[in-house]
Amino acid sequence: MTSNPRAHDTARWAHYASRTVVVVFLVLAWSLALPATADASLLSPELEDKMADFLAIFVLFVVPIGGIVVFWIVHVMPEKIAHKRHHPQFEAIRTLCLLSLVFGGLLWPIAWLWAYTKPTGYKLAYGTDKHSDYYADPTVNEREALAELQQRAAFLSKRGPTASDLESMRADLAALESRIAASRSGGEDK
Predict the structure, then answer these.
(1) Closest Cα to residue 140, out of 172, 173, 190, 180?
(2) Residue 108 neighbours by CB distance under 10 Å
């Protein structure tokens, strides 16, 4: 005759359950039989008062100032993004950010989206999709010229340069170096 494994497991679990009930009952009886002083806190009353004072000062002064700073930073962020990306309508985004501060943040999502998008017809109308400050920076034109020279050099290295290609590239490089030197000396005089 074979024994049923499930019956054996059930009996074992019943034994453990009864043992657990007995232990819980003994712990409860022990805690009721020997009452001790119960404290609601691990800290002394004086230390609780000091901690409550510091917590009150923190909540009354630091939290509102921190909230205002975070609110300001979040609402100025689209302006900083538009400036970094040289958005052509940067001033309008800045104005929308300031209006968003006045209207309690209702316009902020629009400013955020506008900072990350480029206007579709702006380049057709004005010939550029960058803010005018981007081109006022003297190093921007040099960076664009340097990028163009690097592209030409990569193209020539694949194709194999001729003497006229090398001469024109040397002339362009000399002109670029003179413009960079002039912009640096002009920038130091200011």
Answers:
(1) 180
(2) 21
